[in-house]
Design goal:
CATH topology of the largest domain: Rossmann fold
Strand content: 15-25%
Number of helices: 10
GO molecular function, one term: NAD+ binding
Helix content: 25-40%
Strand order of the largest sheet: 3-4-2-1-8-9-10
Distance between the termini: 14 Å
Protein name: NAD-dependent protein deacetylase of SIR2 family
Organism: Natrarchaeobaculum sulfurireducens
Largest sheet: 7 strands, mixed
Structural class: alpha/beta
CATH class of the largest domain: Alpha Beta
Bound molecules: adenosine-5-diphosphoribose
Keywords: Metal-binding, NAD, Transferase, Zinc
Number of strands: 10
Radius of gyration: 18 Å
Number of domains: 2
Length: 268
């Protein structure tokens, strides 16, 4: 039995299977990854997008953020076969949750296009899609903005347009300043989000890490937490990761190849 067959067997038997995704699952959709060849951090410096800079130099932060949003999200990106395979696993009751570091919203699009789901509106930025799979956006959602004064969340497109036309930083009706609804460097993940992610990792029987270099904390410690709680841990990534040594299954392959095959094996 090869690794993928044994992983499919573990998913079939699992009470709680959890997927954890990074930029690599969206790369086949055209969204650039952060590290590796031509990564976002080759074109920008992380220091441009820290919470400290947002507070000390909101104009400069927003001018750079408009450029980053253009580079990362300007295309009409569609979910790919990797997103769809995870949505299908959810629809057949084999996936309890998707924890994603990605802020592109493509897991919602996949859930919606495959099975009808709604974008998250809740404070926790987690919601159950149509089939009850919980989608937890650990780093927020770049399609939204949030007022740092009154907390209002709203659609990001019109606000980014106003900023691109010179309203930097863009202002909320309350007079406060909008921030992209993502976790910036130097900013804490909302406590409820990381607590929920950690409890899912602890509860999981199978923890499937997909398309992440697994170097950014606290997210990157989730596979280790799952492993220490007795889960079968699998890593699907084009390159090696620091968690390969603790994984039961390592597939150095493309998500659009592995995940549909995994779904077919689980359903066979
Ligand atoms: N199939 C499988 N893996 C892929 C594919 C693919 N088609 N394309 C790229 N990858 C892998 C790369 O080899 C790389 O190891 O996806 C990984 C993406 O790693 P990163 O670019 O570091 O992205 P990620 O792990 O999501 O970064 C975590 O860092 O900058 C912060 O907030 C940002 O959420 C991000 C966090």
């Amino acid at each position: 039995m090869d690794d993928l067959e044994s992983l499919a067997g573990a998913i079939k038997r699992a009470e709680t299977a959890v997927a954890f995704t990074g930029a690599g699952i969206s790369a086949p959709s055209g969204v650039p990854t952060f590290r590796g060849d031509d990564g976002v951090w080759d074109r920008f410096d992380e220091g441009q997008f820290t919470y400290g800079r947002f507070r000390s130099d909101p104009e400069g932060f927003w001018e750079d953020r408009i450029e980053l949003q253009r580079v990362m999200f300007d295309g009409e990106y569609e979910p790919n076969a990797g997103h769809e395979a995870l949505a299908d696993l959810g629809q057949t009751g084999h996936l309890e949750a998707i924890l994603t570091q990605n802020t592109d919203g493509l897991h919602w699009d996949a859930a919606d296009s495959r099975h009808g789901g709604d974008d998250p509106e809740s404070e926790l930025a987690t919601e159950h899609d149509h089939d009850g799979t919980e989608i937890l956006e650990l780093h927020g959602n770049a399609r939204r903005v949030r007022c740092v004064d009154c907390g209002t969340r709203s659609d990001g497109d019109p606000v980014f347009e106003r900023a691109a036309e010179g309203e930097v930083p863009p202002q909320c009706d309350c007079g406060g300043v909008f921030k992209p609804d993502v976790v910036l460097f130097g900013e804490q993940l909302p406590g409820a989000v990381i607590q929920r992610a950690r409890s899912l990792a602890r509860e999981s029987d199978v923890f499937l890490a997909v398309g992440s270099s697994l170097v950014v904390e606290p997210a990157a410690s989730l596979p280790r937490l799952a492993a220490s709680s007795g889960a079968t841990v699998a890593v699907v990534n084009l390159e090696s990761t620091p968690c390969d040594s603790i994984a039961d299954v390592v597939c150095q392959a493309d998500v659009t190849d592995v995940l549909p095959r995994l779904f077919d094996l689980v359903e066979s």
